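Researcher: Please translate sequence to structure tokens.
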Amino acid sequence: MKKREKKQLTNEELLRKYKKRFQTVLGMLIAFVVIMGLFLYFNYDYLAFKYFLTSSYIYTETLDEIYKAYLETETNGRYLNNFDNMVIAVATEKIRKQSGDSYTYLYTPKRLEASLQYDKDEAALSEVKILNDSTVYLKLTNFTKYTEKFMKENLETLGSRPNIIIDLQDNRGGDISVMVNISSLFLPKKSVVATDRYRWFEHVFRSNKDQPLKYDKIIILQGKDTASASENLIAALDDNLDNVELIGLKTFGKGIGQFTMPLRRGYAVKATILEWMTPSGLNIQGNGIDPDIEYTGDDIIQFALDRI
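Model: Translation complete:
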């Protein structure tokens, strides 16, 4: 088979080809310049303030104190580097004081690392054990990727008995998507788990599995520290199933949710961005979820077991 010869372009064709490329590159360059110009125009006041203050303000001792108080770091005279983070810290503090929203704040690198490690260590305290021939016990301490992995690893044991006691007494919540995935283990597919209402839209979360864990009876243990995503799991199961019983105390009542956005240099900002509704359409913020049976005894697990 003969090799197809490459067509030689004429000088005119080459000129058109390179002209087209030049026009494309020029168009991209113009678009970039326009975008940068608009960015500088709309952010001029902040950028001017930032560079003016960090380079010219004479009371540097005050700047040092502010940076240390809010960012827990020494500036060593380099005020420009972390100026944005300092502004975020000051702004979120003002928001907290004004609105009472204690969940909106800046994470310094050390605090973020400590928080992530705490989530991991707390998830490790989750527990599954067989109580007797008919009942399995599940303790969930939070909702993180580690908790989800724990559930997958113990799925066979969890499905080995016809009844379950789910202990959420000290579970203060966690990742919404993890909570949805765990709730889906207990619910028929496409059951409503929650409706999250954002500033401009709302999103309905539905169960995404074919209910691999089915029980004759589900007892959920709850307490005053049961909050946020764990309250959502309680509502999701209680609203969708007719074999759920709640034992313990009224829950904390956190019907809002936050998102943590990573920033440069190891910082992150956390802010309240949604309120969530139970499958039945309630927002529990400040109200909590009442138990079916109030119980305060230390033997609450045995008390629950006796009811199966």
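Researcher: Any highlights?
Model: The mean pLDDT is 94.
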